[in-house]
Amino acid sequence: MSRYGKRADLIVHEHEPFNAETGLAALAEGALTPTDAFYVRAHGAVPHIDPARWRLRVGGAVERELRLSLETLREAFRERELTATLQCAGNRRAGLMAIRDIPGEAPWGPGATGTATWSGVALGDVLALAGPRPDASHAAFEGADLCPEARPAQRFAGSIPLDKACRPEVLLAWAMNGRPLAPVHGAPLRVVVPGYIGARSVKWLERVELRPTPSEGYFQHVAYRLLPADGRPGPGAGMPLGLVALNADVLAPADGDSVDAGPVEVRGYAFAGGERHVARVDVSVDGGRRWAQAELLDDLGPWAWRQWRITLDLAPGDHEIVIRAWDSSAATQPEDEAALWNPKGYVNNARPRIRVRATTAEQTQESGRCSS
Amino acid sequence: MSRYGKRADLIVHEHEPFNAETGLAALAEGALTPTDAFYVRAHGAVPHIDPARWRLRVGGAVERELRLSLETLREAFRERELTATLQCAGNRRAGLMAIRDIPGEAPWGPGATGTATWSGVALGDVLALAGPRPDASHAAFEGADLCPEARPAQRFAGSIPLDKACRPEVLLAWAMNGRPLAPVHGAPLRVVVPGYIGARSVKWLERVELRPTPSEGYFQHVAYRLLPADGRPGPGAGMPLGLVALNADVLAPADGDSVDAGPVEVRGYAFAGGERHVARVDVSVDGGRRWAQAELLDDLGPWAWRQWRITLDLAPGDHEIVIRAWDSSAATQPEDEAALWNPKGYVNNARPRIRVRATTAEQTQESGRCSS
What we know:
Two copies of one chain form a homodimer. Chain A is mainly beta. The first copy, chain A, has helices at about 25, 70-75, 95, 125-130, 160-165, 220, 360-370; strands at about 10-15, 20, 55-60, 65-70, 80-85, 115-120, 140-145, 155-160, 170-175, 180, 190, 205-210, 225, 240, 245-250, 260, 260-270, 280-285, 290-295, 295, 305-315, 315-325, 355-360. Chain A is globular, with a radius of gyration of 22 Å. The two termini of chain A are about 35 Å apart.
């Protein structure tokens, strides 16, 4: 058992603040990611919050400021539950770092994402009680976690457009996979913004502010922005991230694995982001000349990824397997990882590739003999 | 002057039914496409409709069936105006046909798209009067045009999800660019579904039907579906098209042009589709190793493309210029046109490439002498 009740097979990138991703094997266990294997992305230490004294403040461009206890949230609003995938904007950054280093950023593999069932109330119901004023266009969220990487240190914060904030899928969640939210995942209350980068699902939520403009905090105005390859991070530089871009990766076999020649099951995930869904996943073993369609597994609703699988017949030898997902706009992923490199290493959604060596029993024995 | 009041520089692919695309020069005139240059995609002859006798019928899964004259639509609902880009799902098919022929389909270039201002009423306001029943999930539209390519011939039809149909941007439009809708563009009334493929903006609208499932008509259930490269068109085969995928193309210079070496202005359009917007357009002259950012021109609102321009400094010689647009999810276009080939030739949104020859005055004179 790792820290915070996490399984030992998490890949820990940083101990303080705690940053750890789910291993491929744990992701492949099923479409719902177990809480004890779910990734954690934090910019500050887990804050100590007394739930009895905690209040959610709602202010800014509202008709009526609110100050709500957990009890009031539970009693005054309809409880909702939904299944949603969260994905860090830095998911698969390791692929970009292999091309050119990105100092100061964690080398996330494909496990900075996961899918859980979230319970709480709709943010929109709470905002309706507050009454957005006509000049309100964005909802900004502020957590209790102090983040030293913004200098001077800032509480983690971020915003989403008010139109999205009022849609029924945006939750103020107090439970994850049917259990009370763990401290490391934002207890007592976090935002869950389905279809948006994980950074907008602010943990340890303390304040919601309606504003005419997006948050001017560090994590919206400086970080979590996509720069051109030759760009320099700075206030307002680059495009703000929000909607998750179509992405996919392979969960099994692992890159570099040896497998038995013959039928080989390949599994992975695909996530469309935004309001889109995964429409198709293609797999090629000949460098993209011909593509076969993978089977899409459990449909957990409009806000969740789709896991997929396909059985390939692999002749003995080395193979490169390439994947491309398609979303409901019939858009697919870009090919070239190198051309996606950017100074902060966000949004690597290039088509994933793995290399496997297919061997026969004979070869395995031979190789066994050679190494003995 | 061409047929239907269209300019002579339209590129006519078919005379009956009339199918014609806008020339690059006309698209490059500005962000709003003049009506007399706007593309036309039809599957049947322009029907003769007497506006005085015409009625819109609204039925299916509704509390109250409606039968509305144009006068009632004008008097009973709030008039709305918005600027929206329409784009045919077959736009840029010519690029796919250059790879492998697609018999029976028109070789659309990049001009099967255009942007206009549309006026009418919100479909959602009309649907609110009809009252969607709980089993209503899709809104199907039927035009008056009989289309022989469905055998037996069918009226053109298609559907969109009810959630989209109720959003305020979906119009029942009677005017285009401030003038009454022309017969060739759907008079007296057409649907305009911003962010969706043009086929859902049904012209010569006569009936709206709320349904539990998508339209089962030919143009939703057989055509306008994306097949794998080795797929066969058939009822329900392939993924239904709806949201437009991120796309872009170059409007000037034209592919194969000779230009003066030195500063060369390159112009084009980019369209994000769905609810996304164009966040950046990159231009490369070295095969995608380095990218410069184009200037995004007039912002005509959330439902319109962005035209863009960049000045490149081209040394004498041959150049290939590659473009990639990015949408607000930080997704960009796929590279390889060949890998997008599909049996019906839809959704070619590969990064556009043009080749130009930059010449000096000396070279031009020499070449002039040679050919004289």
